[in-house]
Specification:
9 helices, 4-stranded antiparallel β-sheet, alpha+beta, 6-stranded mixed β-sheet, 370 residues, 12 strands
C-alpha cells in the first residue's frame, strides 16, 4: 500500500474545486428564473417586458443588503426609470429609440422578504414606423453577481411567426433582431458552449466520466454519447412536447452524479472489468436525464421557431465544443499530476474526485428534494 505524509498537489486542487462547488447555493443549473424578458414586435411598435437585478442600479440600495425595499423603490423611482431608459434601447434606420410608456414594479422575492425585492420588472414600448426593417436591441444593465451577468430575451413577431432567443452579457450588449439562419446557428452555438462550461452539475458529471482512467478514444466517445443523449431528449421535447417537472428532473440529475461516481469508485476498488459498451450505455442513460433538464430550461426561454433544426444543431454542437474544451483542461491537469506524483498520485486524485463528487451530488440532491 502506498502512503503519503502530505496531501498530493493534484489531490489538493481537485479537493478545493469540488468543495467550492459544494459550498455554492443549490445548483439548479437549469432553473433561470430571473434576467429574462420578451420583446413582441407588432405593427408600429415593439413591446418589451424585462426582469432586471437590483444590483444593476447604483445608489438605490441604501442599506447595501442586496435588496430594494418598498421605501427605497419609492424614493428612487425616477432614477430607476431613467436608468432603464438609458440601459435598454432599440435601433433601426431612423436611429435609437428609448422605451416609451415605461412602467416599473418590484418583483416578489420570497416569503422571508415580503417588503423588498431582488428584481425589478420593466414594461414599455418602442415606437416604430417600419418594424420589419433591420433592428438591433441593446441591453447594458447587468447585476454584480455571477448569475446576474446574463440576460435572456425572447423576441417574437406574430405577423410572420418568427421567434428568436437573444442572450446578452457585459461582453455582448447588442444583438440584431430576427436574423438569418447562419446568425441563429451562431447564437445557439455560443449558448450551448456557455451552458456546458457554466452548468455546475454538467461539469461535475463530466469530471466523474473523465476520471475513470479511459483512453482518449473512449473519452471522446463518452463525450459524444453524452451530447447524443442531450440532443435526443431536446429534439423530442421540441417536436413532441415531451417533458417532466423540474422537481423530478433536478434531483434526478444530482442522482446521476452520485450513481456514476459511486459505481466507478467501487469498480476501481474491486477491480471490476466493465466493458466500454456498458459504460457508454450508462453515460447515454444519464445524458437523457440531463437533457430533460436542459429541455425544461430552453422550453421556458424559447427556441427559434423559424430555424428550429438550425437552433438545435447549433446548441448541441456548442455543447460538444464546450465538453471538448473541459476535457482538454482536465487532461492537462491529469498530465501535470502524473508528472509531479506519478501514476499513484493520479490514481489517488481520481479516487478523491469520485468521493467528493458523491458528497457534492448528495448535497445537491437533498437541496433539490427539499
Amino acid at each position: 500500500m502506498i502512503t503519503h505524509s502530505r496531501p498530493l498537489p493534484g489531490q489538493q486542487l481537485i479537493l478545493t474545486l469540488l468543495l467550492c462547488l459544494g459550498l455554492l447555493p443549490s445548483a439548479h443549473a437549469h432553473l433561470m428564473m430571473a434576467q429574462r424578458g420578451t420583446l413582441n414586435v407588432v405593427e408600429k411598435g415593439a413591446f418589451l417586458v424585462i426582469s432586471l437585478p437590483v444590483t444593476a442600479f447604483e445608489g438605490v440600495d441604501e442599506d447595501a443588503d442586496g435588496l430594494l425595499s418598498n421605501e427605497e423603490f419609492t424614493r428612487h423611482k425616477q432614477a430607476l426609470l431613467d436608468t432603464v431608459r438609458q440601459g435598454v434601447s432599440l435601433t433601426n434606420a431612423n436611429g435609437s429609440h428609448t422605451l416609451q410608456d415605461l412602467l416599473l414594479s418590484p418583483a416578489p422575492t420570497d416569503e422571508t422578504h415580503p417588503d423588498s425585492t431582488q428584481q425589478l420588472i420593466a414594461m414599455g414600448r418602442f415606437p416604430l414606423d417600419q418594424p420589419t426593417e433591420a433592428m438591433q436591441l441593446q441591453v447594458s444593465l447587468f447585476g454584480t453577481g455571477a448569475e446576474e451577468q446574463t440576460q435572456y430575451i425572447t423576441v417574437s413577431r406574430p405577423a410572420d411567426g418568427r421567434r428568436q432567443l437573444l442572450v446578452f452579457s457585459p461582453q455582448e450588449q447588442s444583438h440584431d433582431l430576427l436574423t438569418s439562419r447562419w446568425a441563429t446557428f451562431s447564437d445557439y452555438l455560443k449558448l450551448g458552449t456557455e451552458h456546458i462550461v457554466t452548468g455546475l452539475d454538467h461539469l461535475l458529471f463530466l469530471l466523474v466520466v473523465l476520471v475513470t482512467g479511459w483512453g482518449w478514444r473512449h473519452i471522446v466517445l463518452a463525450l459524444s454519447v453524452f451530447t447524443l443523449g442531450h440532443a435526443l431528449t431536446l429534439t423530442l421535447s421540441s417536436f413532441y412536447s415531451i417533458s417532466l417537472s423540474p422537481t423530478v428532473i433536478e434531483p434526478a440529475i444530482a442522482a446521476t452524479i452520485i450513481g456514476m461516481a459511486a459505481y466507478d469508485l467501487i469498480a476501481r476498488h474491486r477491480q471490476w472489468k466493465t466493458s466500454a459498451a456498458i459504460r457508454l450505455t450508462v453515460v447515454f442513460a444519464c445524458a437523457l436525464i440531463h437533457g430533460l433538464g436542459l429541455a425544461s430550461a430552453l422550453g421556458e426561454l424559447g427556441l427559434n421557431d423559424e430555424y428550429l433544426l438550425t437552433s438545435l444543431a447549433g446548441f448541441n454542437l456548442g455543447i460538444e465544443s464546450g465538453q471538448l474544451f473541459v476535457a482538454l483542461l482536465l487532461t492537462l491537469l491529469a498530465i501535470g499530476i502524473r508528472r509531479l506524483q506519478g501514476d499513484a498520485g493520479l490514481a489517488l486524485a481520481s479516487r478523491t474526485a469520485s468521493i467528493i463528487a458523491i458528497g457534492v451530488g448528495s448535497i445537491w440532491f437533498v437541496q433539490r428534494v427539499v
